[in-house]
Amino acid sequence: MSIRVYLPRDASARSLGADEVGIALAAALGDSIELVRTGTRGLVWLEPLIEVATAEGRVGYGPVTAADVPGLVAAGLLRGGAHPLRVGLVTELPWLRSQERLTFARVGVVDPTSLADYVREGGYQGLTRAIAMAPADIVKEVTDSGLRGRGGAAFPTGIKWKTVLDAQAPQKYVTCNADEGDSGTFADRMLMEGDPFTLIEGMTIAGLAVNATQGYIYCRVEYPEAIATLNAALKAAYAGGYLGRDVHGSGRRFELSVRVGAGAYICGEETSMLESLEGKRGEIRVRPPLPAIKGLFGQPTIVNNVISLATVPVILAKGAEHYKNFGMGRSRGTLPFQLAGNIKRGGLVERAFGITLTEMLYDYGGGSLSGRPIRAVQIGGPLGAYVPASQFDTPLDYEAFAGIGAMVGHGGIVVFDDTVDMALMARYAFEFCAVESCGKCTPCRIGSSRGVGLVDNLLAGKDPAHQIRMIEELCETMIQGSLCGLGGMAPFPVKSALKHFGEDFVPRARH
Q1: Residue 73: its H or E element
Q2: ∠ CA 312-315-321 to the nearest 5 degrees?
Q3: DSSP calls for 88-123
Q4: CA angle 469-471-477, nearest 5°?
Q5: Residue ranges of the alpha helices (H) in 352-484?
Q6: In sequence order, what are the beta bridge partners of 116?
Q7: What is the sign, positive or negative, of the torsion defined by CA atoms of 82, 87, 88, 90?
Q8: Which of 22, 24, 47, 266 lies at a CB distance of 3.0 to 4.6 Å from 438, suitable for a disulfide?
Q9: Does CATH number 3.40.980.10 belong to domain 327-417?
Q10: Which of 364, 358, 350 has the alpha carbon at shortest distance from 411?
Q11: Fold classification of 3-97 (topology level)
């Protein structure tokens, strides 16, 4: 009987040489092993991470290169033998054991394209329960759980679903915005590459909840591995009777397919995504009407992001109260936080709301990769505020962060040490907005370009007091006048940099 060896097929692991390690394992061990390609568990600093099934559990080795394989085999890899790269039982690693994995429970554990693996590990229990419920009861379960949109806006998911359910229309849609374009974010990609069935199940439950029969996953073109994995999982779900005209013997219909974006950051905004799905130029729609009333092709439409929809199965399987018991205040459940930038141990950490930035950066992240003091972090993508070290004890909670002028957003945390020039980071915020603006509204289109010029004038020493006053007025205009969050939030990193790191805006030579 061959021994199971697990190796991630996730894009991050592959970029670090996982495929070459797989080839080396096959060459060295041949038919004596069953090589299972999984998603990554999120311990990116240990990738490529080999796991070997033993009587005690899955023993890990990492980070492994193809050149390490012969030495690992000689040291008794298949028996969990001693080796400098041996990290022990992976589930007992403090970094992983202390997490609260609900949405990511199966990522790194299963073959992401195996329906049998998914079902064996508890998949489709939520759908089975949902089939026995009335649509309004499914919506109530999601509402009672306290789940809020994980795409950044944190709008209560249940309220959005109830609006679609109550709307009268001949056709309704469920759409997933998988256009994950924020800097430092990779949770959506990890989920789609490591456990796509949980997204499929969540969207199917959403369809039953609002009487929608068609769903679309709008995935960014930069995620070819995720697209391929999703399509393979969709094929298996159809073959297994979990999608199509008779979902899991319920007599209910739900069709689902993948649509690929064309590389526009603005399509991460829900109405721009809908325009793109309809084959139009991706640009903002004026609201109202809201997509829940008049969305895709003018019909009532659920628009949620990957993590929101992928969290629904565990809520239906274990109940609203189980999920609601995690978190704090109005921020219930867990969020997959992503550590990136100048950090020693980058990766994904799923924890309940309430953990502090200090715990995340040092207990999990291990401090900066450079070994220098962490000066600032940006949370919530390129439009998120910069948080100084003096505020690192703030709990990661939607309301707590709003209280300090920041946001949790999608949970991406980008780390900077004390060598960062915050004036240049403020300039970049305006520059990013100028490049990615759809151009529909003047405050965003013109304001962002004007902002770059104002920062340049400030750094050149041209009447600094006047330039700062103009920047502040421009930021307020963009916040109040922009049609969407791109122009409306680009000022936040600028304002926070000026507030907390004003010393960096003094004119001086820059390289």
Answers
A1: helix 69-74
A2: 150
A3: EEGGGSHHHHTS--STTSSTTTS-TT-HHHHHHTTT
A4: 105
A5: 357-358, 398-403, 422-436, 442-459, 464-481
A6: none
A7: negative
A8: 266
A9: no
A10: 350
A11: Glutaredoxin (3.40.30)
Q: How far apart are CA 130 and CA 205, in angstroms?
A: 7
Angle in degrees, 0-180, between the axes of helices 157-166 and 135-145, rounded to the nearest 10 = 160
In 3D, which of 469, 489, 471, 468 has the Cα closest to residue 479? 489
Strands 57-61 and 50-54: antiparallel
Q: State both tokens at 76.
A: 């008794």
- DSSP state, 360? I
Model confidence band, residue 451 (pLDDT cutoffs 50, 70, 90)? confident
Phi and psi torsions of 353, nearest 5°: -55, 140
The angle subtended at Cα 111 by Cα 106 and Cα 117, nearest 5°, is 70
In this structure, are residues 178 and 212 in contact, taking their beta carbons and an 8 Å threshold?
no
Place of tokens 């996982």: 18
Per-residue pLDDT tens digits for 341-392 = 999 999 999 999 999 999 999 999 999 999 999 999 999 888 899 999 999 9
| Contacting residues for 498 by C-beta, under 8 A, at least 6 apart | 426, 468, 471, 472, 505
The sign one gets for the Cα dihedral 460, 464, 468, 469 is: negative
The arrangement of secondary structure in 115-324, i.e. its CATH architecture, is: 3-Layer(aba) Sandwich (3.40)
- pLDDT band at residue 509 using 50, 70 and 90 as cut-offs: low
* Collapsed DSSP state (helix, strand, coil) of residue 290: coil
> Is the distance from CB of 205 to CB of 138 less than 8 angstroms?
yes
Residues contacting 37, CB < 8 A, separation 6+: 6, 7, 8, 9, 22, 111
Where exactly are the structural domains of the chain? 3-97, 115-324, 327-417, 422-505
Greater pLDDT, 460 or 254 = 254
- Contacts (Cβ under 8 Å, ≥6 apart) of 318: none
Instruction: Tell me the Ramachandran region of residue 439: left when phi exceeds 0, alpha when psi lies from -120 to 50, beta otherwise.
Output: left
Q: Which residues of 390-421 are buried (b: 16+ CB within 10 A; e: fewer)?
A: ebbebbbbbebbeeeebbbbbbbbbbbbeebb
Helix/strand/coil for 41: coil
The number of CA neighbours under 13 Å toward the Cβ of 478 is 31
Opening angle at CA 418, ends 416 and 99, nearest 5: 40
The residue written with tokens 């190796």 in the block is: 7
CA angle, 78 then 79 then 80, to 5°: 95
Considering Cα of 30, then 36, then 38, then 44, what sign does the dihedral take? Answer: negative
CA distances in angstroms from 197 to 192, 346, 400, 411, listed in the order given = 8, 26, 33, 22
Mean pLDDT across the chain, nearest whole number?
A: 94
Q: Cα–chain-centroid distance for residue 486? A: 18
